[in-house]
Structure formats: structure tokens, C-alpha cells
Write a structure and sequence with these properties.
The complex is a heterodimer. Helices cover 78% and strands 0% of the residues of chain A. Chain A is mainly α. Chain A folds into two domains: 2-87, no CATH class; 93-316, MetI-like (MetI-like fold). Chain A is globular, with a radius of gyration of 24 Å. By secondary structure, chain B is an all-alpha fold. Chain B has helices at residues 20-30, 32-49, 51-58, 95-131, 133-147, 151-162, 166-192, 196-203, 208-216, 221-244, 256-264, 274-301, 306-320. In chain B, helix 2 (32-49) crosses helix 12, helix 4 runs parallel beside helix 7 (166-192) and helix 8 packs across helix 9 (208-216). Classes of the chains: A mainly alpha, B mainly alpha. At the A-B interface, helix 1, helix 6, helix 7, helix 11 and helix 12 of A face helix 5, helix 6, helix 10, helix 11 and helix 12 of B.
Chain lengths: 317, 322
């Protein structure tokens, strides 16, 4: 077990190393001069030289990368090209928005997706199964931004035109100030995220339940006279849990790195929106920071999922 | 295809021998959902091919701005009507014509990127699965690595470094799409390479390349076809997402994602619903059709799996239901 975990942590560190090298060297080989970006078109050559010296971009690339990694390990990701502020706090400030969106969304998509999957699997071939399957197919096919824009039009703009406000247009209100306002502002983004993600979970649950419900021990559980609810949730779902946890860990991690599209549609100032703005501004230190943060989330999630396996599945122990 | 008629006395009990291709087509044709999906895909292909004719028919080019007829005096786009069937956008361009040209981009990128991604997946998966050992270790780690990077963020970084273009969009989609399929192919090849027919081939003196291509590859046809079909909608949405974020197809070339991005900027779609509902529905119909077709193909190509098994499993359940 310990060996397995060190192996996983090692692979995680490798992922981060490759990822950091990838973005770092990417911007080195890419066209564009950071000094020119900061100073503007009117700067003289000597001013540019001075800025390059200050940024340290006049040194060899390997030296730059080494210096960057050394600082990054202590949490210093450099300074934004745009407003000269340190990168790490800029990113950290964005995290509460993204975290609220993802965790709330995850709760919602699990409570939509898993019951639909179970319903579909318990009544295979029936009308309810076909409805469940239709939900899965439509959810998998709906591009997030199309769903987001359509919901904004139908649930924000049309009611507003009719004279009442059903949902706000977006924006983020802090949880600490008023939880109700917080939830109200996030309701549409949550639903948009959850409806597209729930399909994945419904399909996964359905497939797992179909496999599990044919097992002998389910028949035993029924023969014991357990209620159907108990058979499904306690005995059936127990076995379906492991793949669900894997998927959940991967999805949450990927989304924490930036729910780029939804933040963009609903004007939420989260990590994803920051990434898009940084790309538009060519603010390379921020892009590097966000990509690395996304990588860190994924690596941590992988390790957490591995640990959860041990709790969930006695065979792994 | 060989159709052998038996020499039975009664013509009613005619036995027809069908190849696996014919059987697959038969199963697929019985599936109404797949057939409907095929019709939708066919319609979109026709729309894409006919784009110049659509432009000629309406008399509007995709990038021409009709400031007099296509915009209201206040500068608001004109809704669907006799002159502009699907309305106009914020610059007074014909949405229908742009939709038709956008279909070209979506289909081209979707199909092209999926095919290249599948090709890479097959090469990587077959090599890793067949050779095993160190080769497998390196290739599997590489696959894991690609699967555990935040792909949209990396795509943004790539685009910001090199500037958006069609080629870069395809490259980015391919780079982040081949890994899951490679993993599936690898698993299949590992079980296939232990089969007797591979052993037989080797004993006849066949080399690794010959075994991989001649013996193993035909057995991978089903996963390759199904996964490639399922990858097409993913690639289409990926391209549309990149364009939506302003990092895909460069304007003024019409693309569905770009049209939605235009509608989204300045929240223009709130006064002009057709700007999201027309390209949005087109995008949804396309991805839905490919996903349904993928599902149908999987069931039709592999009668042992999915549907038949479900029917078998349903029987004991029906009696057990309270």
C-alpha cells in the first residue's frame, strides 16, 4: 500500500514537472516579446533591455526555468505582466468563486444523475429507461455554453421582460455575506453545470447497476426479504461506488482548474475567467500559474481517490 | 456479398446467407433512432456542401454586411423573415448563410480531428499492447500523462502562445483526444495477442508488424468504428468551445462556436434570440445525431453486448420485482 502510494505521488510529481516545463518552454519558443508587452510600442531599446533584465528573461531558458521552479515550490509564481502584482494571490482570490460553483454543482449533478441511472437500470427497456437514456444522450450532447446561454435567455431575460426577476443574470455574491443571495446567484450556473455533468453519472450508474443487479448476492439480499430500496441502495450502490468516486474525483479536479465556459457565460470571476482574461492580455505568468494550479488539483484528486479506494473496497487493502 | 439460395422445395423457406456486414446493416436499419440520426447527419452534410448555393440562392455572402436591410435603424439585428430566413447578426450578416458555412468548419474539424486522433490511438494502443514490457510502460505512462493534464487550460496556453488558427485547433483537439481510446485499444490488444491465431501466424514466420496489421487490426474494427464515431461530437464541441472563447477559428470565417461567441458578447442574444437558438440548435442536433449513431453502431456491431445482454438480464428481474 505504502509502495503504491509513493508510486502515485511520484507520478503526480512527474505530471507537474512535465506540465510546468511544457508551459514554460511553450512561451519561450512562442513568438512575442514580454518586455514589449509591458512597455508598449513607444518604449526605446534601452528601456526594453532594462525590463528584460528585471524580468530575468535575458538569461538562458534553462536557468530561467530553474529559478522559476525554485520560487514556485515556495509558492512564489512571479508577477503579472499586466499590473505587476504577485500571481499567486491573484489566483487565490478567484478560488472561492470556482469552488462554490464546482462543489454546489457536484452535489446537484450527483443528486440528479445517480437516481436517474438507478431508475433506468431497474426498469431496463421500459418507458422510464428510455426517458433516462434520452436524458443521458441529450445531456452528453448539449454543449455547456449553449445550455448556459439558452437558460439565461429563458430564465433570466424572458421573466425580466415580463416584469419579474426569476434569477439574476449572474455575478458572484460572497457566501459569508448572505448564503441565500449566494445560492440564488449561483442557481443557474449550478443547474447548467449539473445538467451536462449528470448525464455522465447517470450513464455510469446505469451501466454499473446493470452489471451488479444480476449478481447472486443481490438475489440473496432479495431472498432475505430486504426491501427493494435497501437492496438497491445498500447492496447495489455499494459495488457501483468505486467507479463513481473515480469519475467524481477526476471531474471535480478538472473543473476546479477552471469552469472556463460557465464562468464566461455567467460572468463569474473565477479561475477559468482569469485564464481567459490572461490569454486575451497575453499575461504569461498568470497563464502558467493557472495551468500549474489545475495540474496540482488533478494530482491531489488522483491521490485522494486512491486513498478512498482503500476505504471503499476491502479487496484493495 | 454472397447470397446463396438453397434448393428447398418451398420458395417460402428461402434461406439467405448474410455476412457480418450485411447483418450489421440490417440491425442498424431496424434501429429507428440511428436511422433518424443518420438522416440528420446527412442533412448537415448536404447543408455544408451546399453552402455556396445557399449563398447564391439568398444572394448573401457569408461575410457581407447588410447595414441597410439587415439591421434596424437602431442597429439591432433583424429577426427571421422573408429576406433573412434565420435573421441577421450584429453586423447585419445573414445567419442562414453563415450557418451553412459554419457547418463546413464543424464537420471538417470534427471528422478530421477524430480520424487523426483514432489513428494515433490505434498506433499507440497496438504498439503498447503488443510489445508489452518497457514499451508498454513508456506508452502507458504517456497516455496517463495526457489524460491527467487540464486539457482546456493547456489548449488556452497553446493558443495564447501561437495565436488562434484552424490548424492549431485541430492539433489541440487531436492531442487531447487520443488517450482514452488508446487505453481501450491497448486492453483489447493485450487479450488478442494471446489468442491462438496470433500464435499460428507467428509460427508461420510472420513478423510483429504483419501480425499487428494483418491479424490483430481487423479484430479491433468494432472499438475503432464506435470510438471514432463517438469522438466526432466531442471534437465538434471542443472546436466550438475554442471558437466560443475566441481561440479557435479566426473571424470573419463563420463557425458555430464563433457565431455563439458573437451573440454572447454585449449580451446581444437577449434582444435577438435567433443568434443563440439557430447555431445552438444546429450544434446540439449534430452532436446528438453522432452520439445516437455511435450508440446504435455499438449495439449493431456487437450483438453480444448491450441490448442482448440487457434482455437476458431483464428476465430474472421481472419476476423478482415486488
Amino acid at each position: 500500500m505504502i509502495r503504491f502510494l509513493t508510486h502515485r505521488v511520484g507520478f503526480g510529481a512527474g505530471v507537474l514537472l512535465v506540465l510546468s516545463a511544457f508551459v514554460f518552454f511553450l512561451f519561450f519558443v512562442a513568438p512575442g516579446d514580454p518586455a514589449r508587452m509591458i512597455a508598449g510600442d513607444k518604449a526605446t531599446e534601452s528601456q526594453l533591455q532594462q525590463i528584460r533584465k528585471n524580468l530575468g528573461v535575458d538569461r538562458p531558458i534553462v536557468v530561467q526555468y530553474g529559478a522559476f521552479m525554485q520560487k514556485a515550490l515556495s509558492g512564489d509564481l512571479g508577477f503579472s505582466y499586466r499590473n505587476q502584482q504577485p500571481v499567486a494571490p491573484i489566483i487565490l482570490r478567484r478560488i472561492p468563486v470556482t469552488l462554490s460553483l464546482v462543489l454546489g454543482g457536484a452535489l446537484l449533478w450527483l443528486s440528479i444523475g445517480v437516481p436517474i441511472g438507478i431508475m433506468s437500470a431497474r426498469h431496463v427497456g421500459s418507458l422510464r429507461d428510455r426517458l433516462g437514456q434520452a436524458f443521458i444522450l441529450i445531456g452528453l450532447s448539449f454543449p455547456t455554453f449553449v445550455l448556459g446561454m439558452m437558460s439565461l435567455y429563458l430564465l433570466y431575460f424572458l421573466p425580466k421582460q415580463a416584469g419579474f426577476t426569476l434569477f439574476p443574470a449572474g455575478g458572484y455574491k460572497a457566501l459569508s455575506s448572505n448564503p441565500v443571495i449566494w445560492a440564488w446567484h449561483l442557481a443557474l450556473p449550478w443547474t447548467t453545470l449539473a445538467l451536462t455533468m449528470a448525464a455522465i453519472y447517470a450513464r455510469l450508474t446505469r451501466g454499473q447497476m446493470l452489471d451488479v443487479m444480476g449478481e447472486d448476492y443481490i438475489r440473496t439480499a432479495r431472498a432475505k426479504g430486504l426491501t427493494e430500496r435497501r437492496v438497491v441502495w445498500k447492496h447495489g450502490m455499494r459495488a457501483a461506488l468505486t467507479p463513481l468516486v473515480t469519475q467524481l474525483g477526476a471531474d471535480i479536479a478538472l473543473l476546479l482548474g477552471g469552469v472556463i465556459v460557465i464562468e464566461q457565460v455567467y460572468g463569474l470571476q473565477g479561475v477559468g475567467a482569469l485564464a481567459v482574461q490572461a490569454v486575451a492580455n497575453q499575461d504569461r505568468p498568470i497563464i502558467i500559474g493557472v495551468v500549474l494550479l489545475g495540474g496540482v488539483f488533478i494530482v491531489i484528486a488522483n491521490i485522494v481517490v486512491d486513498l478512498l479506494y482503500v476505504l471503499l473496497d476491502p479487496r484493495v487493502r | 456479398m454472397s447470397t446463396v439460395t438453397t434448393t428447398e422445395t418451398s420458395p417460402q423457406t428461402e434461406v439467405v446467407q448474410r455476412g457480418s456486414f450485411a447483418l450489421t446493416v440490417r440491425r442498424l436499419r431496424r434501429d429507428t433512432a440511428s436511422m433518424a440520426a443518420l438522416c440528420v447527419i446527412f442533412a448537415i452534410i448536404v447543408l455544408a456542401i451546399a453552402a455556396p448555393w445557399v449563398a447564391a440562392m439568398t444572394g448573401h455572402s457569408p461575410i457581407e454586411q447588410f447595414r441597410d436591410t439587415g439591421l434596424s435603424p437602431a442597429g439591432i439585428p433583424v429577426g427571421p423573415g422573408a429576406e433573412f430566413w434565420f435573421g441577421t447578426d450584429q453586423l447585419g450578416r445573414d445567419v442562414l448563410v453563415r450557418l451553412a458555412y459554419g457547418a463546413r468548419v464543424s464537420l471538417l474539424v470534427g471528422v478530421f480531428a477524430s480520424l487523426i486522433a483514432s489513428l494515433i490511438a490505434v498506433i499507440v494502443g497496438t504498439t503498447a499492447g503488443y510489445f508489452g514490457g518497457a514499451v508498454d510502460l513508456v506508452l502507458s505512462r504517456l497516455t496517463d500523462l495526457v489524460m491527467s493534464v487540464p486539457f482546456l487550460l493547456c489548449a488556452l496556453a497553446l493558443v495564447s502562445a501561437f495565436g488562434p488558427s484552424l490548424t492549431l485547433s485541430v492539433a489541440v483537439i487531436v492531442f487531447f483526444s487520443w488517450a482514452p481510446m488508446a487505453r481501450v485499444i491497448r486492453g483489447q490488444v493485450i487479450s488478442l495477442r494471446r489468442q491462438d491465431f496470433v500464435l499460428a501466424s507467428r509460427s508461420l514466420g510472420a513478423g510483429p508488424l504483419s501480425i499487428m496489421v494483418v491479424d490483430i487490426l481487423p479484430n479491433l474494427a468494432v472499438p475503432i468504428i464506435v470510438y471514432t464515431t463517438m469522438q466526432i461530437p466531442n471534437s465538434i464541441v471542443f472546436e466550438a468551445t475554442l471558437s466560443f472563447l475566441g481561440m479557435g477559428i479566426v473571424p470573419p470565417t463563420p463557425s458555430w462556436g464563433g457565431m455563439l461567441a458573437d451573440a454572447s458578447s454585449n449580451s446581444l442574444y437577449l434582444v435577438a434570440w435567433w443568434l443563440i437558438f439557430v447555431p445552438g440548435t444546429a450544434l446540439l442536433m449534430t452532436t446528438l445525431a453522432f452520439n445516437i449513431l455511435g450508440d446504435g453502431l455499438r449495439d449493431a456491431l456487437d450483438p453480444k453486448s448491450a441490448r442482448t445482454m440487457r434482455r437476458l438480464k431483464r428476465r430474472p428481474k421481472a419476476g423478482a420485482k415486488p
